[in-house]
Amino acid sequence: MALQKEQGDKFGTIGLVGRQGKPLVADSLRRVARLILAKGRGLVVERASAASLKGIEGISVCGREELGSLCDLLIVVGGDGSLLGVARDLASSGLPVLGVNRGGLGFLSAISPEHIDSQVGGVLDGACYAEDHFLLDMRMRRAGKQLAATPAMNDVVLHSGTMSRMLEFALYVNDELVYEQRSDGIIVASPTGSTAYALSAGGPIMHPNLDAIVVVPMFPHTLTSRPLVIRGDSEIKLVVKEATTTTPQVSCDSQIDLDLCVGDELIISKYQYPLKLVYPVQHSFYESCRSKLDWASRLGNSSRSL
Predict the structure, then answer these.
(1) Residue among 69, 114, 70 at smallest CA distance from 92
(2) Does the N terminus or the C terminus of the chain have fewer Cβ atoms within 10 A?
(3) 187 and 89 in one domain?
């Protein structure tokens, strides 16, 4: 994963996207928009977000698919879910992306609302760096024919489709059989996604600079199945062997869901385009883990300093 310092003077035109239907998001969108304009930068807003910026002059409006060719930097205001959608849609454009968190934990959206003026302003002045985060490429095949394909930034999840139902599948890595398993499903996650669903299923926390993929079984019908970390350039194949009365599904970033049939294959590998995430110079992955995962607390005495 490439790590590089960014120069604020390269960010002449800024794109802006915000989660819809949230008053707090709209408030932060307006603050970010005014800051960008005060810095003398051009501002292009995704059409769906423009309604939150009524009354602010000097704004251009376009569709999301145009942002990659019009902007030098994209700022996403919302939760990590908002940024995941942008990643799938715009990673291929190479557009750098900065996240302002108005959601939950915010592992991807590094800037909190109270730091918009200082840290977004700092990024625009060049006090920032960029990391390339690779996405996963999921292709669904049936009887040798590809039916669907989509990138996923966090994870690709094969699951039974219904609570308390199991399915049987086979896992291959680079065409070599790893195992056949009966379980609720399996999670294939990027390093970025290791702190999402995979973490709650017992997977390891992976530093985002790692070139690796983690495979995490979901409630396997065995005591010996454990998370597996493999090379980032591996090709993973999941084959649906048997299902109960449910319809098994594959879910990408918990935002795209597709129904599967017995015999369907999921081919998962590294997506050819990474997402370039921009962070303020103050950002630290380990500090994020300390604050968001409560690493600094002690049992029975959480207020005691370390």
Answers:
(1) 69
(2) C
(3) no
Predicted pLDDT of residue 300: 62
204: number of Cβ within 10 Å: 16
- 157 and 98: one domain? no
Q: What range defines the domain where residue 29 resides?
A: 3-134+274-292
Contact call for residues 77 and 25 (beta carbons, < 8 A): yes
Domains in the chain, number: 2
Average per-residue pLDDT in the chain? 91
Q: Is 182 in contact with 217 (CB distance < 8 Å)?
A: no
Q: Are residues 224 and 153 in the same domain?
A: yes
Question: Do 173 and 260 belong to one domain?
Answer: yes
Is 80 annotated in the active site? yes
Determine the Cα–Cα distance for residues 187 and 253; give it in Å rounded to an integer: 11
* 287 shares its domain with 246: no
3-state secondary structure of 298: coil
Asked if residue 136 lies in contact with residue 126, where contact means CB atoms within 8 angstroms, the answer is no
Give the tens place of pLDDT for each residue, 39-82.
999 999 999 999 999 999 999 999 999 999 999 999 999 989 99
Please tell me which residue in 80, 137, 184, 264 is annotated as part of the active site.
Answer: 80
Of the candidates 76, 11, 90, the one whose C-alpha atom is nearest the C-alpha of residue 45 is: 76
Dump pLDDT digits (tens) for 105-135. 778 998 999 999 999 999 999 999 999 999 9
Instruction: Name the 3-class secondary structure at 285.
Output: helix
